[in-house]
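SAMPLE LOG
Freezer: B-3
Tube label: C17
Construct: single chain, 271 aa
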Amino acid sequence: GVNRVVLATDGDFNVGVTSQDELVRLIEEERASGVFLSVLGVGTGNLKDSMMETLADKGNGNYAYLDSLHEARKVLVREAGATLVTIAKDVKIQVEFNPAAVSAYRLIGYENRLLKNEDFNDDKKDAGDIGSGHSVTALYEIVPVGVDIDAPSVDPLKYQTPSQPARTASPDELVTVKLRYKAPDGDTSRLLSTTLRSQPRPLTANLGFASAVAEVGMLLRGSKHAGSAAFASAVARASKFRGGDGDGYRGEFIKLAELASSLRGFEVSQR
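STRUCTURE (predicted):
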């Protein structure tokens, strides 16, 4: 069965249990019994966005902010299976690049989802859940071997020698992706693993559009890694890879990116 509490709130908890620590303990206790929590943010003004996301994470659930009827239909109708029906819990993903092919890499985003390396095999460590029809996209910026970058150097280690690629690794291997998950009613994780080869391919519509979203995100955050990113290039790529957009979600993103670009220009002109 689907045992889930759906809480619609502005996150300003001022009745009943109001302490964040007490709320987290309560949610974790109920999570252990098989009752999960999803949180829907509503209202304006005193919105506690980070608080609501934290509680949803602790409750093996999802968080979404409903700012319009259109967004409510997206979350509660179109994506209901992906957010309400759990098919795997404590899902962890570990990515290992082949040092013979990649000299440096950076995960874009997911700062609040990072785990320690040793947590991957620790079944006691809580992680995210996957719903029916749910998909996750992670983008990495990589530096191929032989390409010079301006990065801080590290002195040679005194007591350790640098690791070498395993002899079993094929020279054209780029990355190994491992995934651990538990069944919704299970306590022991299962492991899946696959290897991707270094074979550049044209961007698919979904990945091309996702790259535009990431570019806009770095610009909005003022990321030091934004480099030559620009709203114009992100909008152009998003428009190119818009594809079938029956619900208009991608078109809405393009409008928001154009609005952000115009506001940024207005801010600059006011200085």
